[in-house]
Amino acid sequence: MITIQKPGQAPLEIEYLLVDYEGTLAIDGRVHPKAKDKMNLLSKRIKIYILFKGEKDKAEERLKKLKAEMLFLKEEKASEEKLDFLRKLDPQKTVAIGNGLDDAPIFDEVGFSICIIGKEGACGETLKRANLVMTDILDALDFLLKPLRQKATLGG
């Protein structure tokens, strides 16, 4: 479990992490090796799900040795499927990291949301709904791993 303290609110006890693959975890289809290491560290404390809209074989090859469960979504129903999956978990015990339009609906219901504005950009609607904005997946993962970064950013 990870605790996130939002100012003026009860602490969030995070048990799940939903990470969008395209443009968030992966840039141009590649995952930074340090991101894999950080995700594996996080997996010791919370359950990680990677949300993927693409070819299953490529995903499994690129994400081997990553301690996370992959969820394969239909491109045309990605928003709905992400939201349905979130609701099967405990939304208030979940962090979501994304950058695309199909991430915006889960940002409304999740306990804590992080929008990544990386090299591929980010959807304005998703950006507006985020609790936190980062420019890099590595920084977002460090935010979850290092409580002092949370305090500096959120002012807790």
Please characterize this protein's 3D structure.
The protein is of the alpha/beta class and 156 residues long. It has one domain: HAD superfamily/HAD-like (Rossmann fold, 3-Layer(aba) Sandwich). 37% of the residues lie in helices and 24% in strands. It is built from seven helices and ten strands. It has a six-stranded parallel sheet. The protein has a two-stranded antiparallel ribbon with strand order 1-2. Helix 1 packs parallel to helix 6 and helix 6 crosses helix 7. It starts with a strand and ends with a helix.
Gyration radius (Cα, Å) is 14 Å
CATH architecture classification: 3-Layer(aba) Sandwich
Largest β sheet strand count, sense and barrel closure = 6 strands, parallel
Secondary structure tally: strands:
10
How much of the sequence lies in strands comes to 15-25%
CATH class value = Alpha Beta
Which parts are unreliable, with pLDDT below 50 for 5 consecutive residues or more?
none
Going by CATH, the homologous superfamily would be: HAD superfamily/HAD-like
Count of structural domains = 1
Mean pLDDT over the residues: 91
What's the end-to-end separation, in Å?
A: 18 Å
> What is the CATH fold-level name?
Rossmann fold
Order of helices and strands: EEEEEHEHEHEHEHEHH
What is the count of DSSP helices, taking H or I runs of 4+ residues? Answer: 7
Class derived from helix and strand content: alpha/beta
User: How is the largest sheet built, in terms of strand order?
Assistant: 7-6-3-8-9-10
Shape descriptor: globular
Helix content: 25-40%
